[in-house]
Write a structure and sequence with these properties.
By secondary structure, the protein is α/β, with parallel strands linked by helices. It contains 7 helices and 7 strands.
Length: about 200
């Protein structure tokens, strides 16, 4: 299998990282290896080095021009990783900022990364709201159930636009409450490059 780049997206609380963390060990047992990288972590490291933020949640409140510079740097760093192994990039398709939705995968990032597949993890808006309220480790702005669903709709449109620009395929995986096993199996199929 040639090295692949898979982008994993989903709004906060969709469970995208949980699905990934469940799928990776199962794939390793089969000899399917991916380097897992969190785009936000790479961006945070760059922003901290620049002295712009101290925490991840401060990132979305940065000036959009600064965010774009950081995105470009992170895209270049991640694309270089794919020269030696398959990579899965855990990120957000869009980020809800005070000024509106910022694309997490703008053209300049996509041109650097050139993904093979974009996976969008979704869950019911009510489930996401409950998950967010239970997560005391993050500082998140309050969103209504309707706003959560709207953000998921925005992400669907954005992910398809990304696929049009890159020729990547897209896969939507449902991660409903107490259905992690199903979502994990679907993720494994994508990472194995199965139909």
């Amino acid at each position: 299998m040639m090295n692949r780049i898979v982008i994993l997206t989903g709004i906060p609380g969709s469970g995208k990282t949980t699905v990934l963390d469940s799928a990776i060990p199962a794939l390793l047992k089969e000899g399917v290896k991916y380097k897992s990288v969190n785009y936000g972590t790479v961006m945070l490291e760059i922003a901290k080095q620049m002295g712009l933020v101290k925490t991840r949640d401060e990132m979305r409140k940065l000036d959009p021009a600064k965010q774009k510079d950081i995105q470009k740097s992170a895209g270049k760093k991640i694309s270089s990783m794919a020269t030696t192994s398959s990579v899965i990039v855990d990120t957000h398709c869009t980020i809800n900022t005070p000024r509106g939705y910022l694309p997490g995968l703008p053209e300049w990032v996509l041109k650097e990364i050139m993904p093979d597949t974009i996976v969008l993890v979704e869950a019911g808006a009510e489930n996401i709201s409950v998950r967010r309220n239970k997560d005391t480790t993050r500082s998140r702005d309050a969103e209504s159930v309707n706003e959560i669903q709207y953000h998921q709709d925005i992400n669907r449109a954005a992910s398809i636009a990304c696929c049009i620009m890159t020729g990547a395929t897209t896969k939507i995986i449902k991660n409903e409450q107490n259905k992690l096993e199903y979502a994990t199996k679907e993720m494994i199929k994508v990472l194995r490059n199965e139909n």
